[in-house]
């Protein structure tokens, strides 16, 4: 049995009162480790350490100092890539080949991006905007950041929070999800070699730990990637002391497919974007809205693609095919199963639709067609390997269906009509519109949503700005 620990002030630490959480392997359901169940005293110790580290030096580092630290951290992720993948695969059930290629490479690249971005903070030019007065802008770190990350990409989401926070000169306390702390703890150990004690603290725990983090007076900003209810409760706690919040709260991405595409080719790409990581991705291509003339053919083609998807428990080491992990936990398996059990009678489950046999929390790739806009499974983020298909007859209806949920994170449009892509890019109420593709990300471009998907951007220079504050200095001369 492995034992994970917190990292406070650069050192390993158990929970002060010795409480622990069981950590399970989702491929088997067996408990293989424990992590601290941190309480308010642990959170307080971590925040105080972060505050000390900020006041006693990290805030005074130069962009070049922080760039060098982030480059060292990137090198550490690269050097320990295979080890991190093994840790992540045990904690999440992910396939090792895809995790190495799709997560470690981007994580290294994202840290290197923030290393460079640390030296490119922007502000208006210093100048005389009133006679006899000179104005300048200082862009400063916020102070201590409290970050909460989810279980779908534990180590990559940690990088999305750590990169901009550290680049901007903040210190932080990071809480990984209660079910997937392992890779974040290891990242914390590795990064402790590049950062002074207290700059990055890791506190393991459950929802009660998250509440203690949100209610603490020290953090100047709370940044969470998680569910809408979790984000709302963080925002409510932050509101009482007017702390800044940064919310990435999931999505239910519409995928609008017109009748002028190569249906088979589109289906192949959409299936990857819908089933990757078993659909446990806030941008997953889940909600296909297809023109009536191609909807049946597309649904059949998606179901055929589902046949080529394999479970991670069957992975040969290093294989690059689309292997999908189990769902993260039994509650998620029940949630996905319940949504499929309640599919209305006007819909048709073309493939999948019930939990897989055998050990672990596996659910097969599933395609449901004939759905309508108000159906529960269309209006709800499933966070499982499920693609729904509904039909539209004209462009306005497609946009109305796409925008007609509380989510606003990501969307895609599939068509060969260039003018239409421009019209839809404008009309879609989402933080990202992909055109003839779905799911790729780059470090230079922002990731973040509108509406109940939250506000604030991860990745890109916009994210770095979110982790800074702007001060106007005006001098009379
Ligand atoms: N594809 C990365 C999405 C991050 C949140 O789930």
TrEMBL record:
One Gene Ontology molecular-function label: aminobutyraldehyde dehydrogenase (NAD+) activity
InterPro entries attached to this UniProt entry: Ald_DH/histidinol_DH, Ald_DH_C, Ald_DH_CS_CYS, Ald_DH_CS_GLU, Ald_DH_N, Aldehyde_DH_dom
EC numbers for this chain: 1.2.1.19
SUPFAM superfamilies, alphabetized: ALDH-like
PANTHER family membership: ALDEHYDE DEHYDROGENASE-RELATED
Family listed: Belongs to the aldehyde dehydrogenase family.
Protein name: Aminobutyraldehyde dehydrogenase
